[in-house]
Amino acid sequence: MVMVTVRKIRTWEEAMMVLAEGKQSLESLPKDLAAAIQAGKIPGSVVSRFLELEESRFFGWLMQFGGFRERLLADDLFLAKVGMECFVGMFTKTAAEYERRRENFFNELEVVFADVVMAIIADFMLVYLPAPTVSLRSPLARNAGTIAKFLHNCPDNAFQVALAGTSYSVLQRLGAIARNGAKLFAVGTASL
Prior knowledge:
Blueprint: H1 2-21, H2 31-38, H3 44-55, H4 57-62, H5 66-74, H6 78-101, H7 109-128, H8 146-153, H9 170-190
Helix pairs in contact: 1-3, 3-5, 6-7
Subcellular location: Plastid, Chloroplast membrane
Keywords: Chloroplast, Membrane, Plastid, Transit peptide, Transmembrane, Transmembrane helix
Main location: plastid
């Protein structure tokens, strides 16, 4: 327990040093990120990455959305992966629709367009949902049920690196697979 507390203090000090170097304060950060830094969960490297991304107009805008912020902080190639998946999905779905419809392709363009848009949405979700994240979740309510507590304590991704002061058991990692599998099943079913 003492080791975890010392690690949290070191992580907090490291994050605060990066903020000071960047001439930022905790108050200037999003509340979830500031709370995670205050709790000693976020290392200086993640804070540094956040400050770098905030400088860009496009990434700064994306960082306003919690889901994108968590994924961009964890994986600097996240948007490239999403872009490639959506582009390839759009191209292959359009080619498949053309092969299927041939002469009627342009006559049924609205159906083709709807199918391609659905494929792009499904491809986006198939990359977005299981992507690694930097978990910035707030604590769960005390009166939450057992299953809700278990799923809340599971990592967002089965292969997620545990940040300072946290660790994941094999059962929690399996829970992450089950939770994300259920989400992906719902996306796949909705896109039919």
